[in-house]
Amino acid sequence: MHDYQTVTQRLGFVYCPKCSSGNLISRNNKSISCKDCDYVFYQNNASAVAVIIKYQDKIVLVKRAREPKRGMLDLPGGFVDPFESLEQAAIREIKEELGLEICELTYLASSPNTYHYRGVTYLTTDAFFTCQADNINNITPADDVSGYSLVTPSEIDLDAVAFDSVRDILGKFKDQL
Questions:
Q1: Of 53, 93, 103, 152, which shows the fewest CB atoms inside 10 Å?
Q2: Could you give the C-alpha distances from 165 to 58, 103, 125, 170, 172, in angstroms and in order?
Q3: DSSP 45
């Protein structure tokens, strides 16, 4: 499901970030421009990562601790920081959210997503990885995670999953996990 609001609606811009004019126009659903100072702002997709952690015949799902989608199921992961690779972001996010050290990631697929946060709509491209965990006894939910569960892919209730991209990937690949 895609949100096709204009870029000015998605970002909530009322005034030009450069000259403060209210004379903004949306251009091709990806950018805004100011008619007064010719400033152009492009909304490029943000990068995010998620990791399917496999343990025996199950995978780790986390429970979101914060908005958006607080209390819903998700895969561990998050936004890619500036100057960080997708792999570095995935390793960092797993450490921050679960306290796990992972090193061998396998790229699985990507999917677009819409992330609504505090009145701003972020368009993301989410990269999904898999990894094998030898031991999950030391998982410690932290950061954006309030808990976790181990589930077989066939047990996943896709309606309880927080984001479209995660539902998409889990739905497409659950027979292969």
A1: 103
A2: 20, 24, 9, 9, 11
A3: P
